[in-house]
Structures are given as C-alpha cells and as structure tokens.
Specification:
Mean pLDDT: 82
Number of strands: 2
Structural class: mainly alpha
Keywords: Membrane, Transmembrane, Transmembrane helix
Helix content: 55-70%
Largest sheet: 2 strands, antiparallel
Radius of gyration: 20 Å
Pfam families: BenE
Protein name: Benzoate/H(+) symporter BenE family transporter
Number of domains: 1
Strand content: under 5%
Distance between the termini: 31 Å
InterPro entries: Benzoate_Transporter
Strand order of the largest sheet: 1-2
Shape: globular
Number of helices: 17
Order of helices and strands: HHEHHHHHHHHHEHHHHHH
Length: about 425
Amino acid sequence: MRRDLLPTALAGLVSALVGYASSFTVVLAGLRAVGATPAQAASGLLAVCLAIGATAVWLSVRYRMPIAIAWSTPGAALLVATGPVPGGFPAAVGAFLVSAALMVLAGLLPWLTRLIAAIPRPIAGAMLAGVILSLCTAPVRAMVDLPLLATPVVVAWAVLFRFARQWAVPGALVAAVAAIAVHGPGGTLSGAALRPSPVLMAPTLNLSVVVSLAIPLFLVTMAAQNVPGMAVMATYGYTPPLRPILIATGLTSAAAAPFGGHAVNLAAITAALTAGPDTHPDPRRRWVATVALGAGQLTLGLGASLAMALVLLSPPILVVAVAGLALLPALGSSLASAVTEPQGREAAVVTFVVTASGTTILGVGSAFWGLLAGILTALLLHRRPGPGTDPGSAPAEAPPALAEAPPAPAEATAEAPAPR
C-alpha cells in the first residue's frame, strides 16, 4: 500500500470500530427480543459483520468509491420494539429472508424503489421515531433502577458527546464495563468463548410475522439508511449506483439471515466518516477507507461471542440504556423530519402515536399499523404524497440520491453535516 494511503486506511478502521462499538448492543438486544438464544444472537452479530465486510470491500473495489456498508440499526431497534413473535426466532429468521428478498426486488424493479420513495417523509420519520422511543427512554429508567451503574454511563456519554461526539457511545460502553466491574453482579469474562460460533437455523414463514416484521424492517432500512446514505454520498460529490447496491446488500442480507443476521444496508453516519476530505484529499483515493472498514468489520465480527458474553454479564436495563443513548440522535432527526413540515404533520403524529403504543393487533406489530394509520390519515386529509416528500434526510431537490450511473467523483463544494 502506498504510504500516503495509510492514513486513509486508518480512518476506515477507526470508522469500523466506532460503528461497531456504537450499536452492537442494539443488534444483540434486538435479536434477543425476537427470541434468539445467546448463541444465536452472537451468530447473528457475526453474520452481519461478515456481510458488511464482504459487501463493502466488493462495492468499493468494483466502483472505486467509498461505499460504506453497515447493519440496519433502525431495523435492530424495530426488533426490540416488536418483541417475541409467533413461531419464535425461526419465524423471525424467515422475516429477515423476506426483507432481504424485498431489498433485491427494489434493486431489480425501479418502480418498487419509487414506491418506497413516495411514502411521505413525515410519516417515515414518525414511524422510525415511534419504533425507537422506548429504547431512548431506557437511560432514564436505568438511572432510577440502577443509579450506581447507570450514572457513570450517562455522564461519560454526555461529556464525550459535547467534546468528541463520535466517541460518545463507545465511551459510554467503556464506562458501563467499568461500572459493572466495580458495582455490578458477580461473574467475569474469563470463561467467555473467543472462537466465533456460527449457528445455522432453519427459517419458517409466518404471515403475521412477515407483515409485522419483514415489511417494516424493509421500510425502515430503506427510509432511514439507504436514502440518507445516498444523500450523504451526494454531498461529497459521489453518485454510487443505487440498484446494484440494493441488490448486493439484499443478497448478503439473505446469506446472513439463516445465521441470525437481520439486515445490512448502505451506511449513512459511517459514510460521513469515510467519504469526506479528511479521509484523503483526492476523492479518487477514498475508496481505500471503506475497504479498510470492511476488513475491520470482518475482524470485529470474530469477537461476537465475547460481545454477547459482555451483554449477558450486564443487567438488561443497562444494555438497553447504552443502546438508547446510541439512538438519541436518530430520535431527534426522526422527530424533526416528522413535524418540521406543516403539511402532513397530523398524519405524522398519528403514525408516531400508534407506532409508539406498541400495540399488537391480529398478531401484527405496531410499526405496520402506525404506517397504515398515517397513510390513511394523509389520504383522509387529502394531502397526497408529492415529489418533495421522499423519506429520509435527503433534500427533495437532491436527485443524485436516486441516480443509477456512477460518474467520476468530484470534490464536494458543500460542507457535509457533522456525523451524528
């Protein structure tokens, strides 16, 4: 490797570490919520890490762009909100496969992508906010129930969020480990398995689980990850091909699903860390960072069993509290997306209330009913989706987010938003 590319590769490795430490607790909590055993949850974390690594390396080398891939953190939060499903974890794995198939179809059928983009942005933001609300209140509950353990975690997060935002959640995780070591329950990590242990599971299909889990998982992954990810790339002057990315992430998600992986997608936050000028002054060289990110995720995935052992050692509310701190910025941006535009605000509020209620009707979870209620409210008020109401954080006037042919990247002329 050329010497001037070493800092670029280092930036990719740091991005992998930050991304992993910031939300692996969300992934493990989500898999456990829908019925995974500790071994199956560790296998799922390993599977999505391997899928991220393989997809990021392939796409970056193929298109010579810093195409960052990540697991679906909003999707994992959806799993927590959904909770146990009929048929147990095999039915959840079946839903993961259906969601992956929908992602591939979105890449093969342009009209399906346009249909997802037609969901009004306030409704999409409100659904995501309703999904993650219960997680984001966990730090408050932890401060009441476990003050000796939770207080150092929240304080560490707040200080780092002020001075080094990208390290806030990893710092909170370190504080949680230290607090558990000093004040936590008995037990150590000395007997934790260090060797990765993939667990192959036979999926089952359950119609109610497909409706309540697979479809919302596909929708939140598209609206909260893929569309904003394309917008971030466009900010830095890149126009990656959306359809091949959807097909690639759908196929790798399908490969990871039988091992417990829920979904991988185009990254949004990590893309801001790897595609900017701080990574390398030459936009044509920045793809090295996402290759290094993929290699870092492959390496971090090997410690999935150790990560699961750490979670088992922690009180459940503390694990969820760390996950909630990681999702607070997402909650803020989702609420802003839901209520900023006066047109459609009522439908967004209905979506948020129904989704946040956690109500299950006919075996179908609240995320689906919230989306349905919001769309029906919008139709009732005669406020049909317009061309400027696509979901995600991409501005409506940014057409590169749906482009398909990748021109040579140029240096961005606009400053990118600070990573959140």
